Amino acid sequence: MTQPGDSTTRALRASAVGETPTPTRQCARAGSTDARWRAYVALCKPRVVSLVVFTALVSMCLAAPDASLSWNVILAGVVGVTLAAASAAVLNQVADRDIDALMRRTMGRPLPTHRLHLAEALGLAAVLGVAALLVLGLAVNLLTAALAMVSLIGYAVVYTRWLKWRTPQNIVLGGAAGAAPALIGWTAATGTLTPGALALFLIVFVWTPAHFWPLAIARRADYAAAGVPMLPLTHGIPFTQGRILAYTLALVPVSLMPCVAGVSGPLYAAGALSLGVVYLHRAHAFRRSGSGTAAMALFRWSITYLTALFTLLLADRWLVLLVGG
Length: 325
Fold this sequence. Notes:
single chain; 325 residues; mainly alpha; Tetracycline Repressor, domain 2; 2 domains; 0% strand; globular
């Protein structure tokens, strides 16, 4: 199996599937301060980080049943999670810089285009990671800082450098790192882990494969060029479509676990069921007649689904506070 860093082998694979690898050197290095800042921001994957932070923020709000959570803790938690998620995103691009150059979806990133040097990216990741641990450890609590560190290592090292290359179930096992912000937000508010935190964690954990596999189907030629054993390549598209539907089906009861854990009520339950039915319908339609365009549509819907689900959790909590007040 091809390992990270074997650029020659990947170039040959890219040629075999009709891809054109990015030239080793490009004249794309940013010449202005503004362009360099944009490259640094791109390394941090702001859209991905924003969803991570939103998940953690909702978890923080749900963990404080009487809305007594200090604004200082909320601010420190949001800043710390943002820094940790950004550091993990940078390390992910550092680890994937060789295969990013072979994939159309990622070949425009700052490292493959040489807009930034490797040392600059590593320096940014280190600064962000250390800052995250200091903020969370000093202004929140040590458990939250420890969970953030475990999540960072899990995503940037265990998933990116090992799981991704060892098994087509990589995104299932690696989903634990992506679900960790739900735990981090909870411990930031309470300093402990309870069934409510586990319920939010499981939602994101079960959602992750159904979210990612449509993208893997749409971009399977990229993953073939890079030599990454994604499920659509190892088991075929129909099999992967079936697994997407299965995880979507499992997500419906899992999405109701916050009600069982006592952290949400009827408003959330009704909304979660409605969203789940729509998700199931889309996943079933994709299994019957899926294309690359349909795969990307399902991938985008999955992001809308998770955002709407956690927004419902927040709205349900506000309603309870208003009625109770």
